[in-house]
Please model this.
Amino acid sequence: MKNYKRIIPALSILSLLTGAAQISQAQGNASQAQDKTGQPVSNTSSGGYIDEIFVTARKRVENIQDTPISITAFGAEALEARQIVNVGQIADFTPNLTINTSAAFSGSSSTPAIFLRGVGQVDFSLNTDPGVGLYVDGVYISRAVGGLIDLVDVERIEVLRGPQGTLFGRNTIGGAINVTSKAPTDEFSGRVKLTTGSGNRMQIQGLLNMPLGENVSSRIAVNYHKRDGYVDRPDGVSLGDDNSFSTRATIAFTPSDRWSITLSGDYTREREESAPFILTRIDPGAPFAGFHNAVIAPLLDPSLAIAPPGPPSACFIPTTSNPACFNAASVSVGVPGINQGTLPSMSDLDVYGLSLTAQYDVNDNIQLKSITAYRDLDSQSSNEPDSAPVAINSTSDSYIYNQFSQEFQLLGTSFDNQLEWILGAFYFTEEGTNANLVNFSVIEILSGGNVQNQSIAGFGQATWSMTDRLDITAGLRWTEDQRDFTPNQRVLRDIATGIPNGTPLLPNVTASTSTSDLTPHASINYALSDAVTTYATYSQGFKSGGFTQRVFPPVLPAPGQNPADVIPSFNPETVNTFEAGIKSQLFDRRLQLNAAAFTTDYSDMQVNVQIGIAPTTQNAAAATIKGFEFEAIAALSEALRLNMGVGYLDAGYDQLDAGVVGITLASKLPGTSEWTVNGGASYSHDMNDLGSLTARADFSYRSEFFFDANNEVGEDGYTIINLSLNWDSANGDWRASIFGTNIGDEVYGLAGASILNPGGFQQTLFARPAEWGISLTRNF
Model:
């Protein structure tokens, strides 16, 4: 695949010489944070200075430069400037972050697999948990399905690297992505934005902020996005389209100076075609493909039959081109934009959520906070992994679940503000059903079942300011997780292996697992000067075990054996991360340079490998991940700004448990590029009463990586370039933009899956080609 590797070193050196590396991506009109009363904390910016950026990575408002964590933050203006419309796109601008936009074989266009510093999870079943936590307004989003969130009226996004288990809790073993929506204000205001462009794109965004009376205000935002697909099928279906509607409504009530209550509701509806995978590799002689070519194809076209002693059919002759065959001459292999599937295509999603956040100032030093939330999701999707006119393999997924969470936080300061502390308790429960129908030409099976997960936790963390320059932090979290799994799995049809129809794949009984763990955190933060701060941290992450949901052949108990004991399971995994970093703002806040280096010891790593037709999660033993991030911003003048980010990862397995299959010590960890580099430049020209023009260019480079632990399907590496030009009116009421994404028309993969043995095929989801767009925004 084409890329621009030759220009990367030159761009990197040039940017480093000018001091242009990016720490927060949130320059320009950077984000605002929320203080403990829920009101905006203003960023300060003036002329050619770099804006101060406030984050809530430690559950309280802090300047990002004072927070001893490697963080990339995006403000609302930074998101818009980079044409970022969903969570998946932030990976292009965040060192050491990988987001595969669709899980293997799911068919869903909204099921990301997220890896941060090499830690993540590709499986989306209810029995496995993600390795990077996703939070929206303090609410944990437990499932990958529906996780490719449209960014509607977002205040900021924070990417927190390394285990965040002490404060953020479950399944933040690799880090957390923290999304904060804009809060209602006491002024009437609004915004309408219209966007059109390539692929018949039509996007309408609107928001209205409206006071409802004394101490009550409201805010509602809506987003409708429709765009044609970019992978065409012979039946006229276009895969990879956008057809979504989302809305968020918030009411904020401040009955007194001490009370703040916020009620939020959100809803997302997607009605799209299946994820746009294409066929990238085939093996016509693999068991399932071979059965089709030898048995099914001659039945469809008798002219393909060859009498012994020749091959069973002409499909095994490479030059045979026949629509009944599955070989390179008969199907499209490795051609972006072409999928020859003919089976029904679907990626439907309905998800809604409610949350209630209440804050009470006990006194000037202590605050009590409660976050109560409920979410409900229904996802239906299908996929045709063979991507061919012949029906060798198809899958469909029904994914229905709901979650409830309750968190209490007690925050305070003591000893004349020398001690900042937080105590908290967390309760979480979810239940759901996942039905996965897998249809091969020789066998059809149903996998899935019912899952109930429950988690309770207590946590505390304190920071002691020993001097004006030295802070020491310590924290601890206790977690207990319980998982109950009742399989509903059986063979529906079998014409090859001799398994009777209706045979259970797993016993229809409930298996349970319970795990508890303590996850500590410690850090030391020392300010060398008012402009330079250094820190060192130790943190531990923990992710509970679970059950293997997809199995074949059947796993059934021996006589007298407890049926629940034969349901395959995997153990918890643990990481221990040591990190050291430096954060600086130099030349009177005109240059910001931040860097962090880390090493992670990974124990009992949960790896999803393809064993036959079944993706199976197993503990792969131990791994070590080392690396660094370097980011900065340079405000060369009031008009010109440069930014850059660099990430490096050295990751590998140290040892493998006995019985682990599908990987070796030489295998590469999935979702892990050695190098990730991004950079950008913006230039503004003030035209006085005519407004201002701002031109922006961004690039993003990622070195090669694999989508799967088996290292069968991956991406060679790529560079993308985006451009934009904005005009803003002098009074700020109007904005007009023209933009281009992936202007070099780079062909690169965003997800992939392989079932070469026994299926005979491999598929890759490629990104959208070069596209352009224009938008018009009216603020009032």
Q: What stands out?
A: The longest strand covers residues 443-465. The chain has one domain: 7-284+328-779.
